[in-house]
Amino acid sequence: MRNKLSRNIYFIPYVLWIALFVVAPILLILYYSFFDIEGNLSLSNYQKFFTPVYLKMTLSSFWYAFLITVISLLVAYPTAYLLTKTKHKQLWLLLIIVPSWINLLLKAYAFIGIFGTYGVANGFLEAVGIGKQQILFTDFSFIFVSVYIFIPFMILPIFNALDEMNPTLLDAANDLGASRWMTFRRVIFPLTIDGVKTGCQVVFIPALSLFMLTRLIAGNRVITLGTAIEQHFLVTQDWGMGSTIAVFLIIIMFLIMFVTGNRKQGV
Amino acid sequence: MGNKLSPISKAFLVLIFLILYAPIFFLVFYSFNSGGTMYDFKGFTMEWYKELFQDTRLLIIVLNTLVIALLSALIATIIGVIGAIGIRSFTSSKARNTVLSLNNVLIVSPDVIIGASFLILFTMAGIKLGFYSVLLSHIAFSIPIVVLLVLPKLQEMSPTLIDAARDLGASRWDVLTKVILPYILPGIFAGFFMALTYSLDDFAVTFFVTGNGFSTLSVEIYSLARRGISLNINALSTLLFALTLLLVVVYYFITQRVRQTGMGGKR
Question: The whole model's pTM is what?
């Protein structure tokens, strides 16, 4: 008993943190979602959310996040696979991770220069004879930069899953006469599915809520749920509507975690 | 597994590395452009660096960013270690899982939601937006990462170690400082380091909770980048990149040494 009491005493700062910064904020978001812009208690925000404007925005936000996740996966899986086969693989992995430590805003800023009217990308297009294109402020640039930013986060869990795989299983598949494709489909991929799920989770959820990229790279042409929340909180000061969108984003987040769930602790 | 990479695989990896590093080197390259744009390299100059070091406002912002990162990482590490030790001492796995899920909420939540909900929280609590609101939010979102990095180390530790210390007459405090803490030190370092990078990197949360008078680097870069290209940012990013590389090298050697002394886990 004495043991339990003293445990509770030193546990206080942590519990306080959970109460103040985990539970309270979610409850506050929920609470604010029931207030309209004049501060009256009402369900009008929820009504507004189910109008075509917001539903369309939610759908397009989903579509972009889906595209970003799929493309990231298509690039990241072979990369992770090849990385596990290199000598000094930990060092190479570290080199893949390094760019993700460079401030996100700086990378976005670099792409403003690269994709700009006189940028390197256009210089290249002109050199091969396609001619200048509007690259910045398009869907393409938005998706490209997003994928660029998320790739390391997709590679890391897949690399770990591949790295943990027992190589004798591959030998066994080989001995039993499986082709390379068969081995991949029936052995490697199922065994690394947890890494893939984790990767998709850590890309999809943030991709729904990118707002600085939509402003800097997509020139406000793409509106994600995140952009809408930011807009309502910091520009139009309609905290109620912002909170309502946030409530839906939280619900979506839990659904995704449920679908991609059962992942092992600690990535 | 031992088979060599085919030339196509090698080319693919090289391409990925090129794409990942191109924007960064692009920024570095043009930071020396006397032309003042991110195209059309006119000649070598250090003038942007000179300008950078004369910009007192920006230097203060850099200082702010570093102070926030160090303080928040330190405090988050202390609370996180306490939390991890507390979680481990739970006897029922149900309670443990509940606390762990609450712990992970801030890791999976999109930044926009964390930012918006903290904005509501600070406004309701009457905390003025500025240094303290930013510091508190950075502590808040760093704690769960520290917990997740320390917990595996604690679980790795054999409970007989503590029993042995007790049998030999160690007090609770001795057990903590002479047995537990040294054992989990690699986890604590990793936690502190991650908290530091999270704080340095964060844009979205900070963007919501900084007032008018206070700014961190990410927020400042965002507002500069929205105004267009200025090579001061390039010079700044070059310095930041050098700093990041230095941190990575230090981190790599620490983990290598830890691995050699047998303290680090499997990874």
Answer: 0.86
